[in-house]
Amino acid sequence: MKRPMPISSWWLQGAILTYLFGFAVLGILAYLTYADQPPIPARFLTHSGQTLFTREDVMDGMHVFQRYGLMEYGTIYGHGAYLGPDFTAQYLHREAESLLAADSKSGSPAPVSQSEIAAELHANTYNAATDSVTFSDARTAAHNEIVDFYLRFFSAERPHAGAQAHWISDAADIQHLTDFFAWTAWTAAANRPGHDYSYTNNWPPEPLAGNSVTADAVTWSVISIIFLLGGMGVVLFFFGRYDWLGWTQAQQRIRFRAIEEVGLTPAQRTVVWFLLVTSALFLLQTLMGGLVAHYRAEPGNFFGFDMSTFLPYNIARTWHVQLSIFWVSTSYLATGIFLAPLISGHEPRGQAGLSMVLLSALAIVVFGSMAGEYASIKGWLHSGWFWFGDQGWEYLDLGRVWQILLVVGLLLWVGILWRGLHRQLAKEAHGNLPWLLFYAALTIPAFYAVGLLASPKNGFVVIDFWRFWVVHLWVEDFLELFTTIVVAYLFVLLGMVREDNAIRVIYLDIILYSVGGVIGTMHHLYFSGTPAAHMALGAAFSAMEVIPLLLLTLEAWSFIRSGERSIAGGANPHRWAVWFLVSTGMWNFLGAGVFGFLVNLPVVSYYEIGTGLTANHAHTAMMGVYGMLAVGLLLFCLRYLMRPELWSDRAAALSFWSLNLGLGWMAFCNLFPIGIVQLYDAVRVGYWHARDPHFVTVPWVHTLEWLRLPGDAVFIIGGALPLLWLCLRAIMNPNPARAGAEIPTRLFTVETEEAA
Known about the structure:
The chain has a domain at 40-212: Cytochrome Bc1 Complex, Chain D, domain 2. The chain contains 23 helices and 11 strands. It has helices at 10-36, 55-67, 87-105, 114-122, 137-154, 171-189, 215-241, 266-297, 313-344, 351-377, 385-388, 400-427, 433-448, 460-493, 499-517, 532-543, 546-566, 575-600, 602-608, 612-641, 649-684, 687-690, 699-732; strands at 43-45, 51-54, 75-76, 79-80, 132-134, 253-256, 301-302, 305-306, 390-393, 396-398, 748-752. The strands form 5 sheets. A 3-stranded mixed beta sheet has the order 2-1-5. Strand 1 (43-45) and strand 2 (51-54) form a beta hairpin. It is globular.
């Protein structure tokens, strides 16, 4: 007979209904994305009817954009990297300036006004019958001028603004690339049929082109604030009325099992190699991050040495982003393998061999994809770049073959977990902790695989829609779910939280996160060519993503205190692992909650997307939540894998304080203040100006860029290096736990019992 749920089954039913509702709405929005995406006309015509460029030229230009990794240098529609310009905004501004200059040179006694130029750019000349758009002679001349500008930019003799010399040498490639930029700029200005704003909801802010914030952006910003304040009020009311999470209830007092008393299985022993790879990839990722940051302080150089020849900005940033996914994922995979025997109390034969096969496969994907990205961006892959080189989409940079292999590897991991857990799963109701862990593990390959829907045959708008399923739903929702379940399970295994309380927290997290998080995916797509419905729903629902973070923050102190009260005596062997998990909650509220809500407001996002405020949210949420959790999990597992007397709390403490202080320094001394300055500049002057590569050379902005260096040094030297040292020490000094020792299903013993 299966063990029933220790809490009401209504929690499980509520979670299922929440997901069904969220994905039903996403299905509708997917249909609208395809139906209402901006057209890519078969031909762009001159006023005299000659073909300026074609749909094939635009698509070829998009493929050049992908192949050379331009999304890891600049942005399109505000999405991508932050050193280079936003190519949509840059093209549109240059086009408007060219139209004004052409008018002033014409010698006309009645020059065309700026408002008339804005009207020309906003006039949608798309003819559905002929599938064509017509440009005036002035716009045609502007396009040709901009082609010349990009020819000089991408084929320059010397490196500049972080870009390598002779970046793209084929003039035809640059011509098509400019055609792609021209199409995005056309969608940014041409009014959506039946509306007085463009396909991109009048983004980017560009006074010369007549682009200003829309009524929808302001209205839905107000409504999202109402949703946030209303939701917070409801949560605070029930928080005060009921002891939802139960952490303030009296608990049994426990004593942790001694490290040497915990038997290790063969598969658990393989985990140390996963952790070594995790720490090595983390160190490499931080080095790439430091180099990327240095390019903003000293574009193209590294303390006077020309790094762009070997590691131009876009390659360094591609690796930085991809390695963040790889090292965090490797830590999660290792933890799943380590926990499975503790949950089920047994390990089937062959788990260790399968685990090493998985690690080998991950190594092939990591280093194969990095080599392919390097070859593609360097221009060495003229064919096969999409499959083996660089797909060119941020977070999905790796070639399609490597992406498929990574999905296969993640499925292999799910299979390893199933083999280890299936006996225990057979004994449990489908809403209990072991099943919740397995469900969360299954979502990781499932929702990463959604990125395979980003086909090179689709236009940019559709590709970006599916890409953000990975960026948001995979990274920010289902990894968040896995985070919550793993943390809750660890505290149950350690006896610090009762099982029913842990399950209640998980379901509350699922329901509250999913109410806002699933539909809130659309907050990334306000200005990417999707209709205003995406902005309306994305703004309203993403505001509610802050609510569960507020609840968990309110409960954090009582949770910590209850855990301390439950320990009967002796040192806590997992002190620093627990503190990393605590810091995860703090950064979750600050990075994902406060900084995330700031950039999710449409009226703010309209001016700040792709600036330092976006980077600030990304770093504090990604590293602050998933990175800190990954390190905490690494320390938890490593504690059992190393000879106990050689463990160093000093190294763990040094890593904890250095990573948190370094991340805080990065946020508050660099990314946040620069983002505020860019926001001000985008409102006062124009978005193109705030995103111009020369913006970082403004004297006091340049000082802020250099000011980041101490924080990065602390983060890398004090934070990442001690973790690698601990892992190497564990490899050389493994825990000699006796073979065949009993596998405990809980890592504590009960000291006394208190009435609940």
